[in-house]
């Protein structure tokens, strides 16, 4: 939802219920349909096996978790791990073949995600480009979220200090301690910025909602990450606040705000062009019935 608003992506906004639709959108099924089509036209053995095993319609659940985590910059390793953990390939009995199946299915999931979520990937690459540039100047990227919280994307190279001790009868103890340094770990910083950025927007949205609910006299909260709850009588008010605060957050483009903070950190304009934005009529967000259920 945040990425569709940031990138003004009308197609994805409909699938994640950011703009008005007659019925709830389903991004997970959309990605699954792309994955099914990739298998149908694929020329690898596993593509055909998947297509036939799932009877020409790969289940939505196969793609759901990876799609859910894509906004936070899921890695290929993460996709493979989810494919194993969730048991989608338990029907492949041979251990060697199962590992091949995991790799092939994960590649299809990645390809489906990249095809479906092109604009959000452009946004992630923008964040990563600015982060890498800051690292090259020995700087951490910092930004202030819509709630006023200062976030610092600090990742450093660790040094390992090993302490060894010898005891009676040749017993030995070895303890390793990771020590922080001032050297920036550019690879970690670049990999971490997409999830950290979106998590910071998530958290800011929640804090702004809680603040407004408190001002309106609501005392009961059951909030976890992007799950919002309160007493039944207060749900309509809470929902209106959720939608309004989401709308207010993205009135100004959050990537532009991020870039201004990076410029302040570097002391000069990095002159990285903003990714091309879509044509979403952002005012329509306020009329979305399914933005938050």
What class do helices, strands and sheet pairing give?
mainly alpha
Number of helices: 11
Query: What is the molecular shape?
Result: globular
- Strand-residue fraction? 5-15%
Rg from C-alpha positions? Answer: 23 Å
**How many β strands by DSSP?**
4
SSE series: HHHHHHHHEEEEHHH
Helix fraction by DSSP (H/I, runs of at least 4): 40-55%
User: Strand order across the biggest sheet?
Assistant: 1-2
* Unreliable stretches: none
* Overall average pLDDT: 94
Distance between the termini: 13 Å
| Major sheet size, sense and barrel closure | 2 strands, antiparallel
Structural description of this entry:
This protein has helices spanning 2-7, 10-15, 27-41, 45-53, 60-70, 76-85, 95-116, 118-136, 186-215, 235-249, 254-266; strands at 141-144, 150-153, 156-166, 172-184. The chain is mainly alpha-helical. A two-stranded antiparallel sheet has the order 1-2. A hairpin with a 5-residue loop joins strand 1 and strand 2 (150-153). The longest helix has 30 residues, at 186-215.
Please specify the SSE layout and strand pairing.
Elements: H1 2-7, H2 10-15, H3 27-41, H4 45-53, H5 60-70, H6 76-85, H7 95-116, H8 118-136, E1 141-144, E2 150-153, E3 156-166, E4 172-184, H9 186-215, H10 235-249, H11 254-266
Antiparallel strand pairs: 1-2, 3-4
Helix pairs in contact: 3-4, 3-5, 3-7, 6-7, 8-9, 8-11, 9-10
Descriptive key words:
two-stranded antiparallel sheet; 11% strand; 293 residues; 11 helices; single chain; mainly alpha
Summarize the structure.
The chain is 53% helix and 11% strand.
